[in-house]
Design the sequence.
RNA sequence: GCGAAAGUGGCGGAACUGGUAGACGCGCUGGAUUUAGGAUCCAGUGGGGAACUCCCCAUGGGGGUUCGAAUCCCCCCUUUCGCACCA
């Protein structure tokens, strides 16, 4: 018998798939087109078995769809810009272009070794000028529509690394790399006006039926829509047009407003205190608050503090005079940056009022009547009846809100407003390794967009990487100095580059026509292929990437480039793979492989071992090479898909891998031995004359695997069904005398087994397919069909329960009547004994399931 | 604190619209073969009792609905994830 030599088989079929272009998509338009996409990775160079899950899931699905006759487009590319390559250049002196290219080569090889196939003819890299030319094009289209703009803004600054950090590099207020606290610097920054799309991004979540609910919830929270009203409070001693505007969702509580509070950053603050005794202290306080970390302040980790400004405002409803405070808990970026404070009905206002000794006044009564302010320990934020609210008293507060907003609008001191938590998208980075922002600054013409025909604005290769705080491009005169596209006078290029999320917000469109030089993509082709039929990626992109991609798609729709408004019809987020990791109190994460008896390999301290996401930084990765070398890629694939439902987090198990390997070895032996015995027997005919159980099982496993893959992506139960089927088959062959084998049935079962197994273990199945006498790829052999009528049993086993407890099993013909079933059950020896002469009070017969006797 | 998801053998996990809990795999136990095995094959494996195929208890805990609940309802506990001064 030929041995299962995966080291020979796997490279052979990998070459074969590539040579035969089996995964090159045909032009769309046949009606069975399927765009299947995995989030393109950052080319880090080294992949571990945890990364593999994403791609293995995608590949299994891709092969399944292909076998079912779909014209599948499954491309792969590289999210190749970004900080790690630049940081590597700073540390090691290797140019990002070189390290990125090397890493891409490594990863492409890795995919191949996993047996993962893509339409490589469409490969793209976001750092390639042929790609980022169109990222710049996209920026210019947004700029034309006023959606890309520049303003001063606070950015994260790490003074130890001398660099600006992206939000995602700030972990709990500290620099991700050095741990230094991050502070804020006020710099000119570029933004994309995503807030203009906030309503549509929120509303259209409702159309995404095949997205995980939790992703939609996360996006909805992030967008954070709130309905309220802006109200003008006149300031005592100022003219009417100098009113202070606040935003509130609870105008019904306004009679309980006992003070006002404004953000220390509020532009009016300095003017209000000018020349007053409070001026010095208030301005000092404001300066101090600005130095507090934005993270700590935004997360409410800072103690609430504030100062009275010495000024008062007039409540527009009651005419009452209330003091104006400056307070650190009021955020400058939300609403109007000033609030009316109602301690009795807002927890934050309550806490501040208690600390500052300000009064609490109850104006909403709960079911048990109004609370006593002196006795309250927290704010009452529920709905209720309005009290002590002038003419509005006695109203239900929800009704009061609507009426009071209408009143404010009529009287002209307020306006119903919708506010979002979502902020405009800050896209500029003071870094080198990104797409340059295609803008030229001219002293005469101002901000001038680079004309389309001058794109791409290419990154110069030779720059100084040492971080100074400015973009490295600023120190490169050949790049910076350029004539103004408008007037021709000497001008300066913008030296900031774009956030890599801009690249990934549209790359899925570029795959449709990756080499097109006249446009970012072919509109007609894009409309035929998209929306993406199945998008697969990690949950960590639930908000940013997916929101940005949706925003950009809607924008391109609005300017006539796409017919669809949502890019991804179906989304799947796979769970992380975890593995034990060791942490030493002194040395941090230490390699788990070197830990013996829970002791740190560097010192003698006991380490703490916990399950962690597999990550290089935690030294707990399992290298695919170690698995592929010992067991083969098919084993890794099979185990990865078998260990748990793919959406769930799961621990990698080295023992489990061996189980998968054993299974493949058994399949190999089963097919080799049996096909040798069968000789040239053909299993094409699905004769009903053969072994009924064999036939039924063959159809049943076909249905199970097809449904698990086609509906819920439950690869784990599909694999289990295949194991069960092969166990049955081996058992049948062993227990039935060779002369009595249902030879066509067995031949057919083997072929179907191989076909159904292909998406999971593609190499071994290609090999076995040939050994079963086939000449073409298993991918070309179609996907087996099942016949529902073949699943029916002649005789079924029914459980007989007495008062719900299992007492006996009976075999009855499927077409037996209820009466026959009941009689059979009651006549069963054990049931007779248990009933012991008692009359059953009731007998429930569930056809095909059970009989329950109630006594 | 708010929101969501989830708690099933020693472990990963099965269980269709309520209908024989523990599929499949790992691990473990016994046996066969082997110089040996981290190889292969056979048998067993939720717990407790009884000893042949019988009883009791078991799906985080406690109630409830039902002939029948892992599944539905209520209360509680735990874990994970997300959000968290957004007025």
Sequence:
């Amino acid at each position: 018998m030929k041995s299962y030599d995966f080291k020979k088989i796997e490279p052979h079929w990998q070459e074969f798939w590539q040579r035969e272009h089996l995964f090159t998509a045909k032009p769309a338009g046949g009606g069975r087109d399927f765009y299947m996409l995995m989030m393109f990775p950052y080319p880090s160079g080294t992949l571990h078995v945890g990364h593999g899950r994403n791609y293995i899931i995608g590949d299994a699905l891709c092969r399944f769809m292909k076998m079912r006759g779909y014209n599948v487009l499954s491309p792969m590319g590289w999210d190749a810009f970004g900080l790690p390559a630049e940081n590597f250049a700073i540390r090691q002196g290797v140019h990002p272009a070189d390290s990125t290219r090397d890493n891409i080569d490594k990863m492409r090889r890795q995919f191949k070794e996993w047996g993962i196939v893509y339409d490589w003819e469409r490969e793209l890299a976001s750092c390639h000028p042929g790609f980022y030319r169109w990222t710049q094009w996209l920026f210019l289209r947004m700029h034309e529509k006023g959606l890309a703009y520049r303003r001063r803004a606070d950015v994260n600054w790490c003074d130890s690394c001398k660099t600006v950090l992206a939000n995602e590099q700030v972990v709990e207020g500290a620099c991700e790399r050095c741990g230094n606290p991050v502070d804020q610097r006020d710099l000119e920054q570029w933004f994309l006006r995503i807030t203009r799309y906030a309503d549509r991004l929120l509303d259209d979540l409702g159309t995404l039926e095949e997205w995980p609910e939790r992703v939609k919830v996360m996006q909805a929270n992030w967008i954070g829509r709130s309905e309220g009203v802006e109200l003008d409070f006149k300031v005592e001693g100022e003219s009417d047009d100098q009113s202070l505007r606040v935003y509130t969702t609870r105008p019904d509580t306004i009679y309980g407003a006992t003070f006002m509070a404004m953000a220390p950053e509020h532009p009016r603050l300095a003017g209000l205190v000018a020349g007053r005794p409070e001026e010095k202290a208030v301005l000092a306080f404001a300066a101090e608050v600005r130095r507090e970390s934005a993270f700590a302040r935004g997360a409410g980790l800072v103690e609430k503090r504030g100062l009275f400004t010495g000024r008062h405002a007039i409540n527009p409803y009651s005419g009452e005079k209330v003091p104006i405070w400056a307070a650190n808990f009021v955020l400058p970026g939300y609403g109007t940056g000033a609030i009316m404070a109602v301690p009795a009905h807002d927890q934050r206002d309550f806490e501040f009022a208690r600390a500052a000794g300000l009064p609490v006044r109850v104006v909403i009564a709960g079911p048990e009547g109004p609370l006593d302010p002196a006795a309250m320990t927290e704010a009452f934020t529920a709905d209720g009846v309005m009290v002590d609210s002038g003419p509005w008293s006695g109203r239900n507060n929800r009704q009061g809100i609507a009426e009071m907003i209408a009143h404010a609008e009529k009287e002209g001191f307020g306006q119903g407003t919708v506010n979002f938590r979502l902020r405009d998208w800050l896209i500029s980075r003071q870094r080198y390794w990104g797409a340059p922002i295609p803008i030229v600054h001219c002293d005469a013409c101002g901000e001038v967009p680079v004309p389309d025909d001058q794109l791409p604005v290419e990154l110069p290769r030779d720059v100084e990487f040492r971080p100074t705080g400015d973009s490295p491009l600023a120190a490169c005169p050949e790049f910076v100095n350029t004539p103004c596209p408008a007037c021709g006078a000497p001008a300066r290029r913008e030296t900031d580059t774009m956030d890599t999320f801009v690249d990934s917000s549209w790359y899925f469109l570029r795959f449709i026509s990756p080499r097109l030089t006249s446009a970012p993509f072919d509109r007609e082709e894009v409309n035929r292929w998209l929306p993406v039929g199945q998008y697969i990626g990690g949950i960590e992109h639930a908000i940013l990437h997916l929101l940005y991609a949706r925003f950009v798609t809607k924008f391109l729709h609005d300017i006539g480039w796409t017919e669809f408004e949502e890019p991804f019809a179906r989304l799947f987020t796979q769970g992380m793979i975890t593995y034990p990791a060791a942490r030493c109190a002194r040395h941090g994460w230490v390699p788990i492989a070197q830990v013996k008896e829970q002791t740190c390999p560097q010192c003698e301290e006991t380490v703490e071992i916990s399950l962690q996401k597999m990550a290089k930084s935690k030294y707990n990765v399992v290298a695919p090479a170690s698995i592929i070398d010992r067991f083969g890629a098919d084993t890794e694939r099979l185990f990865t898909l078998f260990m748990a439902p793919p959406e769930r987090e799961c621990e990698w198990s080295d023992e489990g891998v061996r189980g998968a390997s054993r299974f493949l070895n058994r399949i190999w032996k089963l097919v080799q031995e049996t096909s040798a015995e069968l000789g040239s027997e053909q299993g094409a005919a699905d004769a009903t004359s053969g072994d009924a159980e064999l036939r039924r099982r063959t159809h049943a496993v076909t249905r199970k695997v097809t449904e698990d893959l086609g509906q819920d992506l439950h690869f784990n139960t599909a694999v289990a069904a295949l194991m069960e089927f092969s166990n049955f088959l081996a058992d049948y062959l062993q227990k039935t005398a060779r002369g009595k084998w249902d030879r066509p049935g067995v031949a057919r079962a083997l072929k179907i087994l191989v076909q159904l197994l292909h998406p999971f273990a593609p190499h071994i199945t290609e090999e076995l397919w040939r050994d079963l006498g086939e000449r073409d790829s298993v991918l070309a052999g179609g996907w087996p069909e099942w016949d529902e009528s073949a699943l029916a049993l002649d005789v079924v086993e029914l459980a007989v329960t007495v008062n719900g407890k299992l007492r006996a099993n009976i075999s009855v013909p499927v077409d037996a009547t209820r009466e026959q079933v009941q009689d059979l059950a009651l006549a069963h020896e054990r049931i007779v004994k248990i009933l012991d002469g008692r009359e059953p009070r009731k007998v429930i017969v569930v056809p095909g399931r059970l009989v329950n006797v109630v006594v």
